[in-house]
Amino acid sequence: MNISLLIDKQISAYNTLYYLSGYIFPLILFLYSLTNLTHYQFNSIYKKDSKKGFQYIFYIIFPILIIFSILITKYYLFLFSKIINAPFNFLEFNKFQFIIILIFSVLLLIKKTKKIVKILYLIYYLINFTIYWTINTYPFNIPNTFYNDNYINNYLTSNSNFNYINIIILFILEILFFLWSYVSHKNNISDWYIPIPQKSSLYPLVNILIFYFGLIVYFYIFKNL
Question: How far is it, in rounded angstroms, from Cα 218 to Cα 225?
């Protein structure tokens, strides 16, 4: 066998393994989040008592719901803007965005569709990671039919911190999902009553912090290999 051909095959095999290895932690993130950071169980030993619960809960429920819906919407728009190489302004709103925010708010208010919202933005994360990772691993093997050279060069130079931004946004969404899970737990919203959380109810926040900190460290190390 021709030595140069053998070397090319070895390099190709190495690149393929390297490319596939990049999906290890994104897939772990997806599966771990759905399995361990979605269905929260909270202790409810307190009966309805204004002295042991939050007052004026409208000022708790409404901000969490709106901020959560806005961030999900902006997350979609931010990553989509990177794909199509378009400008992005976080503070800019239009009618289309308000409609999307309203849709997400309604979906979050319904217990059966709350999980769907999370699945959607986790899938969206994987799609965007795939595009980013493919362009960075095989920048010269992408057909011009899909991307032109100017787009690829701009994507590579302007998205060096793409993974970090992606993970940080997911981390914030995870915190908001946990908070929303607590305030909407069982009949809290219908009873217009939110009990003060016990320490054990806050343990998932520690898991979220440790897990996403580990992901950031992984991507930092993986980037410098």
Answer: 11
Dihedral angle at the C-alpha atoms of 109, 114, 120, 122, nearest 10 degrees?
120
Tell me, what amino acid is at 220?
A: Y
Amino acid at 127: I
For 42, 46, 83, 95, the CA distances from 88, given in Å and listed in that order, are 38, 46, 11, 16
Give the closest residue to 168 by CA, choosing from 212, 124, 199: 212
**Residue 205 is encoded by which pair of tokens?**
């926040």
The average pLDDT across 44-68 equals 73
Give the distance, in angstroms, between the CA of residue 102 and the centroid of all CA atoms in the same chain. 19
Question: What is the C-alpha to C-alpha distance for residues 61 and 192, in angstroms, rounded to an integer?
Answer: 10
- The whole-model pTM stands at 0.81
Q: Give CA 2 to chain center in angstroms.
A: 47
CA pair distance 56, 144, nearest whole angstrom: 57
pLDDT tens, 110-164?
A: 988 999 999 999 998 888 788 778 777 776 555 444 444 455 555 554 555 677 7
| Amino acid identity at 197 | P
Q: Tell me the two tokens of residue 88.
A: 């992005």
